[in-house]
UniProtKB/TrEMBL annotation:
Name the record gives this protein: tRNA (guanine(46)-N(7))-methyltransferase
Catalyzed reactions per annotation: guanosine(46) in tRNA + S-adenosyl-L-methionine = N(7)-methylguanosine(46) in tRNA + S-adenosyl-L-homocysteine
Enzyme category, top tier: transferase
Superkingdom, natural source: Bacteria
Signal peptide: none
Organism expressing this protein natively: Pseudobacteriovorax antillogorgiicola
Metabolic or biological pathway, per its Swiss-Prot or TrEMBL entry: Cofactor biosynthesis; adenosylcobalamin biosynthesis
Amino acid sequence: MAKFKAIRLIGIGDDGCLSLSSRAYNASIDCQILVGGERQLAFFPDHPARKIVIKKNLKQLASDIDEMSHEYNIGILASGDPLFFGIGTLLIKRIGIENIDIIPSPSSVQLAFAKIGKPWQDCRFLSVHGRPLDGFVNKVQSHRKVAVLTDQDRSPQQIARRLIDYKDEAWAFWVCENLGGVDEKVTHFDHTRALEIHPSFSPLNVLIMERPPSWQPRPGISFQSEEAFSKRMPRKGLITKSEVRLLTLAKLQIQQADVVWDIGAGSGSVAIEAAKCCPEGFVYAVECDPQGIPFCQENIFSHQVDNVHLLEDRAPECFEKLPDPDAIFVGGSKGSLQQIISKGMERLKPQGRLLVNAVTLDNVAEARQAFQQLGILPEMVMIQVSRGVPLAGKYLKYEALNPIHMFSVTKGES
């Protein structure tokens, strides 16, 4: 057998040393230091090694392990597969894979699927362990089967409540507790509300979610009509028309984990469609009109995009509250278009995209002037859409929508 490296990252199950392969057990024998959580270290009461409990400062711990490994053999005990939402990624980044032996055990998710007898190659894996639930509902919208690592503060019941709030209830659930331990338990729920009212679970659990066979994922390119959104109804409604919205999203080139600003969100249609394009990111929808806020909030819930943060505030004054964006859409400005463009370009990340949609000739002139002052030549497009509408009898005619002037730029490297 090849000699082990000084640092050995050893996966261990909830049944302790019984879960270790002979290779994992042999790797632990000559360690002078064992590092792990209190639960993992308790599986080695008679081991003569010095024991270090993992606490919160993991980066410092990784540096300490690297330094100590010049003198000692170090065993790091981790739950299941250390590279599955575990400490392995951090250690490799800080120490290097060439200095670590990784010996995994089956992950908790692998054990959970074995218990319920379902394949898991088509599963979406999520962890809310120590992470907020923001964006969880949007992340699962394109998936039939999801496995979730939970914790005491983000329990299966809280996940069920969030799904109910965002009107996404058609799931079956399995809560798999203390997998591999003496008090292992698997509970099946055939509906979201049944899970919501369950009294309690062990903090050590895996939640498996599955949609019914009839379910279909939402399309890759969304093309929702205006009627799909709640909106104020002066004239034809304060909402970006679907054809314009589609081109807007294309020009913003939103990536999976982008941060997007929607300035002058109105009914929120662009923010909502943008959120579907960045399920791993977040959209910040800014609207200063208090009458529009309830409509925008209703649309966020009904379209199941919990990665949209709605701010009742005025731009550009609110920009200091927001994280730097990868993309900015300006659909409304309330007379502050030049300042929004200027400050938005300052905050935009390198290679980020800014798009202004102007309806009035005044805003067209103001946008042009703002970009000229910044020494930027934007790409300019005017889009004019006409829709067929019935006329008297069997006839049809085209009815023109307002033309939209689009100013788009990509920020260069600073």
